Amino acid sequence: MKQKLLALAVGGLMAGLASAQSANVTLYGVLDVFLANERASSSPGKASASATVLESGGLSGSRWGLRGTESLGGGMNAVFVAESGFAADTGLSVQGGRLFGRQVFVGLNGGFGSFTMGRQYSPLFNVLCEVDIDGCSTFSVVGNHYIGLPGALRIDNSLVYSSPNMGGATVSVMYGAGEGAKTSFNRTVSANLQYKAGPLYAGLGYADVKNATGGNAGRTVIAAGGFDAGVAKLTASYLENKYTFGTAKFKGWQLGAAVPFGATTLILNAGQGKADAVKQTLINLGVDHSLSKRTTVYARYANADNNAASNLGAFTGKPAVTGPGSDKRIITVGMRHRF
Bridge-partner residues for 158, per DSSP? Predict the structure, then answer.
């Protein structure tokens, strides 16, 4: 009897070890800090203000995270991500002080695609940043004009299904439960259709968000594309949003180009956002230089020009825009390290 119990115990231990060996957990992160001089000025001859700041998250938000997979057999895997954002210049937590404010989810993937649950990036976000030549940076058109729209970034209490690759095409669908007194309160629906084949990319994105009483908080659609010819990568997108700005429809476009020269890449990004009489045109010029696969130094010059009816902010918001018709300019150098 004792021998049988011992055999069972050893068998259970070996099964546990085999199971542990099939799991893979990775600690990863990004540290990104930049020094910038920003200037906000209203119409020529009027008030202006400037500030020199050290900030976190120029090209990429500073973060640390854990991600893992476990083989469940039959081509199916359990997956998870738990990612925390922080300010590398101060050490403070960001995303409202949440422990895992950037994203945290668990799910399954396999031949059927993937299904995940938690706080996740919306399918609309995936299209937005796929064609942002500067990777949704602090200085880019997408980073300043689009990411703040409802349903364009992270969604709490969300379920996401992403299809397998079907000849270059994939589909993702999200439902974000508002968890209000009624199903429609604060709920989010987002989806995308993407096609990637060699150097070509094309994408459509959509998000619809309800407010706390079930009314329309924002509905956004985007059409985007890109082509990487090796000597240069070109991207473009057009976006429309309803309800976020009341009866005014927000319209935006952006163009991007990246030209590599060995370890150095030149960046050009330009675009415009407009809602009724309010309009801002943004130009972002920069250079990235890779010191290694993990470490990049960069420099940016970006200018956001508001028309006479607009005082939209841009970049870090330091200093504040001084009034309608103002401009916002930033000159910066920074460093990003991935681990």
Answer: 118, 176
CA 27 → CA 24, 58, 63, 101, distances in Å?
10, 22, 11, 16
Domains along the sequence of the chain with CATH: 24-338 (2.40.160.10)
Find where tokens 């000025």 sit.
41
- The DSSP 8-state label assigned to residue 93 in this structure reads B
Find how far residue 67's CA is from the centre of its chain: 18
Within 8 A by CB and 6+ apart from 170, the residues are 162, 163, 164, 193, 194, 195, 196
pLDDT in tens, 210-263: 999 999 999 999 999 999 999 999 999 999 999 999 999 999 999 999 999 999
Confidence of residue 45 (pLDDT cuts 50, 70, 90): low
Are the CB atoms for 101 and 87 separated by under 8 Å?
A: no
Q: What is the average pLDDT score of the chain?
A: 93
Q: Is 18 helix (H, G, I), strand (E, B) or coil?
A: helix
Number of Cβ within a 10 Å radius of residue 250 = 21
Q: pLDDT, tens digit, for every residue of 290-331?
A: 999 999 999 999 999 999 889 889 999 899 887 888 899 999
Q: How far apart are alpha carbons 77 and 190 in whole angstroms?
A: 25
Tokens 């604060």 sit on residue: 186
pLDDT of 44: 60
Residue 11 makes CB contacts below 8 A (sequence gap 6+) with none
Tally of helices (H runs) and strands (E runs) in the chain = 3, 17
pLDDT digits (tens, 9 = 90+) for 202-212: 999 999 999 99
- Non-local (6+) Cβ contacts of 81 within 8 A are 65, 66, 67, 103, 104, 105
What are φ and ψ of residue 230, in 5° steps?
90, -60
Q: What is the pTM of this model?
A: 0.90
Rounded Cα–Cα distance for residues 241 and 154 (Å): 17
Contact 99, 119 (CB under 8 A): no
